[in-house]
């Protein structure tokens, strides 16, 4: 679909799209919006990450300018602190009629409170966090979990469809984040299970390539195990999803009520790995930390 088709039936005005946060995820997501031909403006705190956009995309040097000149604004930021800082600036602007779509993984409480504040100012808000890492972000095949009003989702849908293969509307504001915390709880368990299994098979003298092929061909293999296979074989943990972010999400799950038998173990494992300086490595780098503690 070309951006000339992106009209609102009520006033035939084309929405201008803004994107804040061009990190590991935000950059490829914004690139997909650019590729689709939408009138796009991007902002990143470290402006160096905003290079490589085409001439028809506007690179803004401030959040204020980005918000003033756009109608539907996506954000993909680290955590509560980052989102609250960015939206603190946004809330000081004239934002009547604008739609904000936060795709970051943050706490449910912060997200719901933000939705209420934006609504008080005449703007709309969707929480729309994603499942899938940098490859699905680049391929436009993320799973997008949405909380908020149906009409707002319909306004955002043409853009979300360029970033994700599946858009799940789960109910009111906060429900998208709720689903995201649940799936990442599962993911943190998978990664710890995978790391322990590989260490166990190492100990028994089975080559990593052989073991990972067996896992991936079996019922216990998944997209999550497949995507971490090359990192485990190369023992090189360049981040697609940083361990710091996974630990953030386990803590958010605990705050949201995940008081199940594994939560303490997960916190202990990922905290120790962070303490061992692995926080900026990929999440599956926990294997290096578990190895030290299990010798
Ligand atoms: P990232 O690479 O660390 O990017 C974080 C982005 O937030 C950067 O653009 C960063 O700007 C910006 N930022 C941080 N603090 C800021 C502040 N105070 N003001 C303005 N901008 C700020 O993280 P990511 O991997 O893209 O993840 C983004 C979100 O998606 C996180 O909530 C994460 O949990 C979630 N997520 C990640 C993955 C994944 O596989 N990576 C998958 C699903 C969901 P600078 O460049 O200036 O630092």
UniProtKB/TrEMBL annotation:
InterPro entries reported for this sequence: 3-OH-isobutyrate_DH-rel_CS (IPR002204), 6-PGluconate_DH-like_C_sf (IPR008927), 6PGD_dom2 (IPR013328), 6PGDH_NADP-bd (IPR006115), HIBADH-like_NADP-bd (IPR029154), HIBADH-related (IPR015815), HIBADH-related_NP60_sf (IPR051265), NAD(P)-bd_dom_sf (IPR036291)
Domain 6-phosphogluconate dehydrogenase NADP-binding span(s) in chain numbering: 17-171
Top-level class of the enzyme under EC nomenclature: oxidoreductase
Entry's EC annotation: 1.1.-.-
Pfam families xref list: NAD_binding_11, NAD_binding_2
Coiled-coil annotated spans: none
GO MF assignments: oxidoreductase activity
Cross-referenced PROSITE patterns: 3_HYDROXYISOBUT_DH (PS00895)
Residues in 3-hydroxyisobutyrate dehydrogenase-like NAD-binding domain copies: 174-288
Keywords: NAD, Oxidoreductase
Source superkingdom: Bacteria
Keyword Ribosomal protein: no
Name of the protein in its database record: NAD(P)-dependent oxidoreductase
Species for this entry: Sphingobacterium thalpophilum
């Amino acid at each position: 679909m070309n951006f000339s088709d992106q009209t609102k039936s009520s006033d035939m005005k084309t929405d201008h799209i803004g994107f804040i946060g061009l990190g590991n995820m935000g950059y490829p997501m914004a690139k997909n919006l650019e590729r689709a031909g939408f009138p796009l403006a991007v902002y990143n705190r470290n402006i160096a990450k905003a290079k490589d956009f085409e001439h028809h995309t506007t690179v803004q040097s401030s959040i204020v300018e980005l918000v003033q000149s756009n109608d539907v604004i996506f954000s993909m930021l680290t955590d509560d602190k980052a989102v609250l800082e960015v939206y603190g600036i946004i809330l000081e602007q004239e934002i009547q009629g604008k739609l904000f779509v936060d795709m970051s993984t943050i706490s449910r409480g912060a997200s719901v409170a933000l939705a209420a504040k934006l609504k008080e100012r005449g703007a709309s808000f969707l929480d729309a966090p994603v499942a899938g890492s940098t490859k699905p972000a680049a391929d436009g095949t993320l799973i997008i979990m949405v909380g908020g009003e149906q009409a707002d989702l319909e306004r955002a849908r043409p853009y979300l469809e360029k970033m994700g293969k599946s858009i799940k509307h789960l109910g009111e504001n906060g429900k998208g984040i709720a689903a995201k915390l649940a799936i990442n709880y599962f993911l943190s368990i998978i990664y710890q299970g995978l790391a322990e299994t590989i260490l166990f098979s190492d100990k028994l003298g089975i080559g990593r390539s052989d073991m990972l092929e067996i896992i991936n061909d079996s019922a216990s293999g998944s997209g999550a195990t497949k995507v971490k296979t090359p990192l485990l074989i190369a023992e090189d943990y360049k981040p697609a999803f940083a361990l710091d972010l996974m630990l953030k999400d386990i803590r958010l799950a605990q705050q949201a009520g995940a008081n199940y038998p594994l939560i303490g173990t997960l916190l202990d494992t990922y905290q120790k790995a962070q303490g061992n300086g692995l926080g900026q490595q990929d999440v599956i780098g926990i294997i290096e930390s578990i190895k030290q503690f299990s010798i």
